[in-house]
Design a protein that fits this description.
Pfam families: NTP_transf_9 (PF04248). This is DUF427 domain-containing protein. This protein is mainly β. It has a single domain, classed as Metal Binding Protein, Guanine Nucleotide Exchange Factor, Chain A, CATH 2.170.150.40. 0% of the residues lie in helices and 43% in strands. It has a seven-stranded antiparallel sheet, with no helix packed on it. The protein has a four-stranded antiparallel sheet with strand order 4-3-11-12, with no helix packed on it. It has a two-stranded parallel ribbon with strand order 1-15. It is globular.
């Protein structure tokens, strides 16, 4: 495979030290989502899901989204760990990002704390920030990982990484 694990520096985490199956943990910092030129969510109650080879996926309480920004759409996908995902378009002003947010209405055992939270693909938003740092989107279009200076890879998602 030729995977060369990056060594984390002080204050960093390696995604290769994250567990499989994934772990959910509270995140005490400030998470902000911006879309359509507006701040659509701000929270200090985020959670993050940590899974081997993936940057963290941040989940924001639905109650912390601006009213009217989430529009449920048809269709679901299945996560082997968390269960059935339900999708939303994110809308702010005249901007719409189709199927850019998701939730688990009835997460499977071990992931119940995700109930009532929403994740977004950071690459489909104007900006996502974690403690004032602008997030980079995980490569590829399948995963919704948030890359900050606090995590090192390599990260799954780019072409050629599906077999990891």
């Amino acid at each position: 495979m030729g995977i060369s694990r990056e060594k984390p520096g002080p204050g960093q985490e390696s995604v290769w030290d994250y567990p499989r199956p994934p772990r959910v943990e509270n995140y005490p910092g400030v998470v902000v989502l911006e879309f359509g030129g507006q701040e659509i969510a701000r929270t200090q109650r985020a959670m993050r899901v940590l899974e081997t080879s993936h940057p963290p996926v941040f989940y924001v309480p639905q109650a912390d989204f601006a009213p009217g920004t989430l529009h449920r759409v048809d269709g679901t996908t299945w996560c082997e760990f968390k269960g059935a995902a339900t999708y939303y378009d994110v809308v702010a002003g005249s901007a719409r990002a189709e199927r850019s947010a998701w939730t688990y209405l009835e997460p499977t055992a071990g992931f119940e704390q995700l109930t009532g939270t929403i994740a977004v693909y950071p690459g489909r938003m104007d900006r996502c920030l974690v403690d004032n740092e602008v997030v980079q989107a995980q490569p590829g279009d399948f995963y919704g990982g948030w890359i900050t200076s606090k995590v090192v890879g390599p990260f799954k998602g780019a072409p050629g990484t599906w077999g990891w």
